[in-house]
């Protein structure tokens, strides 16, 4: 059985969010092909994780066996979010571009999930690259939307793209190598013209294709063992 972690980061509700519609399409297609999938939904857009603070840093950098009770309490949300990542085979993220970067709610999620001893190790014996990820072998599908256009390398706004490079830089904390990231992007949302409509149609086709392909690689269990289970976290 495979586990799909679905993360939505749009501050908009389902009806008004392009990325939420794409993540829903991804989930539907995936579960259709691999009905035994366990889907875990984490809605950071509706319920943002707390920003990390000095207590989080102090607690996270104290060895587990030396932690005081308040430290364990303060790391509880981080533990829960990390457990969801650890259990996931595939992570699909609905990510709007806000002010040229990722929504603050998703950045807060990454800050809770990137944790020493849990998702990365740190060792100065490794020289100039002391950080190594602990998790591995996961797939990340980024389903994004932008009001403007031209954020790809060589595009008219490539220099303003603070979103895709940030996701690529942080993906290793999730156990995702750079080759295991696939990104689908809706553009021109603010123009509401034919270019936007074409972009939506293409994004829907690609989203369904990726979901179908990834689900096919997990859909190997006999039908008698299949049964979809849902678990929602907010
Ligand atoms: C607060 C806010 C900031 C935004 N900043 C940008 C931006 O910097 N660049 C851009 O191309 N679009 C920007 N947009 C447009 C969104 O990326 C676009 O509306 C997208 O469809 C949002 O995703 P959603 O439909 O899933 O909510 C912004 C929208 C909002 C609400």
UniProtKB/TrEMBL annotation:
GO terms for molecular function: electron transfer activity; FMN binding; oxidoreductase activity, acting on NAD(P)H as acceptor; oxidoreductase activity, acting on NAD(P)H, quinone or similar compound as acceptor. Its EC number is 1.6.5.-, 1.7.1.17. Pfam families: Flavodoxin_2. The keyword Cytoplasm does not apply. Residues 3-204 form the Flavodoxin-like fold domain. SUPFAM superfamilies: Flavoproteins. FMN binds at residue 10. The keyword Manganese does not apply. InterPro entries: Flavodoxin_fold (IPR003680), Flavoprotein-like_sf (IPR029039), FMN-dep_NADH:Q_OxRdtase_AzoR1 (IPR050104), NADH:quinone_OxRdtase_FMN_depd (IPR023048). Binds 1 FMN per subunit. It catalyses: 2 a quinone + NADH + H(+) = 2 a 1,4-benzosemiquinone + NAD(+); N,N-dimethyl-1,4-phenylenediamine + anthranilate + 2 NAD(+) = 2-(4-dimethylaminophenyl)diazenylbenzoate + 2 NADH + 2 H(+). Its cofactor is FMN. Belongs to the azoreductase type 1 family. PANTHER family: FMN-DEPENDENT NADH-AZOREDUCTASE 1, FMN-DEPENDENT NADH:QUINONE OXIDOREDUCTASE. Homodimer. This is FMN dependent NADH:quinone oxidoreductase. It comes from Candidatus Filomicrobium marinum.
